[in-house]
């Protein structure tokens, strides 16, 4: 883990070199914001603790958000480390150029270059560890994406099944009209109906027409009315079964 590597150290001050026109000042490398990274990790840990209490879809989204937080934090850390790496390279290049013209400062500059090289090694090790960690995060994201696809497919299946659920809300009185549920003995009696309400299975004619029109509009199968001699005939038994009365 990159956390096993200590942050790049401040370079020691260079020994005074009188012959240098521009003496090498102390090179202070940009330091990664370890505190900010620690706060980010604490945020991820707090959000992760909430995941067991979520439903599957929320769990997938929460884990994905945590992965994005980690990627953003590691990207920021990598940018800071790369900035320090580039700073050291610039100082190294300047020191090499001065070596060509200042023989008296060769020994001091060479020591300075050794220190810079040691700092480069530490930075490269950190960058390698971060790169490996990012690769693991990318693999994890791919797994999460596959899980999201499964969740979406399951949700689509649920929606399709819900579309097939009959509109049994007409058994209640929450609709725009009230349906009266007669006792099964009256609804299922084979005797010849003597009133319009008995013929319609316990509904008034207006209620029956409203229910049929709404169900037909909703796509209920087998309920298309047939007009015969000016009267409305419906598959009564199918309608009563569909509505849950029988």
Any overview of this molecule?
The protein is mostly helical and 246 residues long. The protein has two domains: 2-164, Helix Hairpins; 169-243, no CATH class. 61% of the residues lie in helices and 2% in strands. It contains seven helices and two strands. It has a two-stranded antiparallel ribbon. Strand 1 and strand 2 form a beta hairpin. The longest helix has 59 residues, at 106-164. It starts with 33 loop residues before the first helix and ends with a helix. 13% of the residues are buried. Residues 17-24, 163-199 and 220-238 have low confidence and may be disordered.
List the helices and strands and how they pair.
Blueprint: H1 34-50, H2 56-101, H3 106-164, H4 184-187, H5 196-199, H6 205-217, E1 226-228, E2 231-233, H7 236-243
Antiparallel strand pairs: 1-2
Quick synopsis:
The chain is mainly alpha-helical.
Global mean pLDDT: 61
The chain-level structural class is mainly alpha
Order of helices and strands: HHHHHHEEH
For the terminal residues, how far apart are their CA atoms?
68 Å
Question: Which fold name corresponds to the CATH topology of the largest domain?
Answer: Helix Hairpins
Number of helices: 7
């Amino acid at each position: 883990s990159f956390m096993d590597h200590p942050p790049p150290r401040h370079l020691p001050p260079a020994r005074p070199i009188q012959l240098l026109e521009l003496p090498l000042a102390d090179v202070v490398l940009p330091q990664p914001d370890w505190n900010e990274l620690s706060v980010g990790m604490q945020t991820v840990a707090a959000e992760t603790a909430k995941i067991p209490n979520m439903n599957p879809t929320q769990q997938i989204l929460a884990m994905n958000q945590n992965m994005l937080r980690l990627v953003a934090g590691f990207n920021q850390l990598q940018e800071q480390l790369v900035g320090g790496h580039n700073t050291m390279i610039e100082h190294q290049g300047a020191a090499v150029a001065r070596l060509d013209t200042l023989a008296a400062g060769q020994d001091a500059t060479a020591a300075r270059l050794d220190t810079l090289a040691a700092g480069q090694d530490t930075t490269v090790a950190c960058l390698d560890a971060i790169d490996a960690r990012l690769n693991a995060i990318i693999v994890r994201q791919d797994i999460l994406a596959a899980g999201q696809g499964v969740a979406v497919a399951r949700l689509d299946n649920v929606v399709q099944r819900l579309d097939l659920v009959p509109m049994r809300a007409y058994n209640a009185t929450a609709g725009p009209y009230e349906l009266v549920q007669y006792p099964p003995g009256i609804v299922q009696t084979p005797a010849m109906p003597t009133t319009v309400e008995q013929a319609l299975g316990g509904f008034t004619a207006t209620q029956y027409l409203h229910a049929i029109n709404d169900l037909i509009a909703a796509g209920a199968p087998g309920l298309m009315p047939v007009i015969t001699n000016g009267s409305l005939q419906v598959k009564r038994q199918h309608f009563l079964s569909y509505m849950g009365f029988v």
